[in-house]
Amino acid sequence: MQMLYPFSGSIQQYNEQHAHSHGRRPCSCALCGEGKPLRAHGYYWRTVSEPGIDGRIRVPRYLCLACRRTISLLPEFVLPYMRFAITFIAAFLKARLLDHKTMTRSAAIAGDSAMPYQRGQQWARKFCCQASGLAAALAALTKPPPAPDFSARALTMLETAGWRRAHGFLFDKLRMHLLGWPGFLAPDGRRRTLSPSF
Ligand SMILES: [Zn+2]
Question: 63 C-alpha vs ligand 1 centroid, how far in Å?
């Protein structure tokens, strides 16, 4: 299971701070509720890209000694299962869906004028599918504004609340993903236990 680690800096700052340390160890297990600190359990490398940067970060993993399951801690600039950092995706979605720029112009505003058209199209489609649920959930952080559609409302709320803060809230409290979980983890980011087939 993945959890978020509050971190307001850049990819480079994260790597500098976490080159030799294991990060913040969870003091309880979010999976089984055990109230004892989890044990450091290695790490893995993950790619996080921004325009012009293909960064790699070290993601620490922790083991719960009670339920024997692991939890990995992602910094808040990461969207699980997405290669690109939240700031880049946020800038693109705002330009495309709130300011109604063309796909190409939106990619340029976000900082990557060479971004494949299909990638932006996919992000916009995924966000629109989530928008009404996001807007409802974000009402816990900020007042819903009048808006012509759910996408505009959710984007305005994300801009007001701050994308990282909102992402942290949605992910940790509600297990919601800004662009929706991949099918094998839907609806809440957890793997289903498969029933035996007969
Ligand atoms: Zn546990």
Answer: 8
